[in-house]
Amino acid sequence: MMRKSLFLAGLLVLPASAWAGELRDLCPDRPGKATPACILDPGHVEYEASIADWAHDRSGGAVDDGLLIGDSLLRIGLTTATEVQIGWTAWGQDRTRDASGVSKSSGTGDVTISIRHSLQNPDGKGVSIALQPFVSLPVGGSAIGAGDWGAGLTIPASFELLRNLQFAVVPTIEAAVDDLAGLEGDGVGAVVGAVPGSAGPRGLPPRLCPRPRRGPPGRPGSRGRWDCRPAGDR
After folding, report:
1. What is the distance between the alpha carbons of residues 104 and 127, in angstroms, rounded to a whole number?
2. How far apart are CA 234 and CA 5, in angstroms?
3. What is the mean pLDDT of the chain?
4. In sequence order, which residues have a C-beta less than 8 Å from that of residue 85 and are 6 or more positions away?
5. Cα dihedral value 1, 36, 85, 105, nearest 10
6. Cβ atoms of 216 and 62 closer than 8 Å
7. What is the mean pLDDT of residues 47-73?
8. pLDDT (tens digit, 9 = 90+) per residue, 141-165?
């Protein structure tokens, strides 16, 4: 499998109220491939968005190109240990070329709402662990949306190996209706996975292993693909 990606991102931090103490190091979720365990300072709002995210995948005689525009995340710091996140993709397109021809679909993405609560070191330093339950609302189109509700739990964890160098792992359990591993008909499926082996400077999100990519409904196996090659090999 060959996978190439291009990601352009923007970041806007808005202090919603005065903060007398020293602010924590900037710790954005994007552009990243795993979920950091750090928490946004209370009373602050952070908006993270990609301008364009393009992925090229060649496997099994098929070529798949995915394009996302305006993949955004709004983070709101509630307390020193808790933040709320709202994620949405403004537009996306999936184009597949194989022996049968070319198929293309596009539309908006689903809305994801989550709460991240730190169990240890909300600043992301040392050993930092958090719990992040989430729910996905099926408001998007079939091209990049799931078509059904989803819910799950991630457990972001990072460990400081050396000064300014961390190792991160993100165990995840997720349940969704009708759109896991090619399930057809009514029913609920579950998937368990993790994003391991991602290391990088402290304060920046890990970049080695992307989250599994949700493919168009009805394509078995398109969910749960992992690409953990070093970033330079893509």
Report:
1. 44
2. 8
3. 74
4. 29, 73, 74, 75, 76, 112, 113, 114, 115, 116, 134
5. -10
6. no
7. 89
8. 777 888 788 999 999 999 888 777 7
pLDDT at 88: 93
Report the number of secondary-structure helices (H) and strands (E) in the chain: 0, 13
Bond from prior residue into 28 cis (ω within 30 degrees of 0): no
Which one-letter amino acid corresponds to residue 153?
L
Q: Residue 34: pLDDT band by 50, 70, 90 thresholds?
A: low
Per the document, the length of the chain is: 234
Could you state, in order of their start, the residue ranges of all structural domains in the chain?
A: 2-17+24-233
Determine phi and psi for 81, rounding to 5 degrees. -125, 0
Q: What global pTM score does this model have?
A: 0.73
Joined tokens for residue 67: 């394009």
Query: Residue written as tokens 């352009």?
Result: 8
* Listed ranges 23-27, 97-101, 116-120, 172-176; the one with the highest mean pLDDT: 116-120
Task: Using alpha carbons, select from 228, 229, 215, 136 the residue that is nearest to residue 180.
Answer: 215
Mapped onto helix, strand or coil, the DSSP state of residue 83 is: strand
- The confidence score (pLDDT) of residue 32 equals 60
Task: Name residue 144's beta-bridge partners.
Answer: none
Tokens encoding 72: 């955004």
- Determine the Cα–Cα distance for residues 155 and 173; give it in Å rounded to an integer: 9
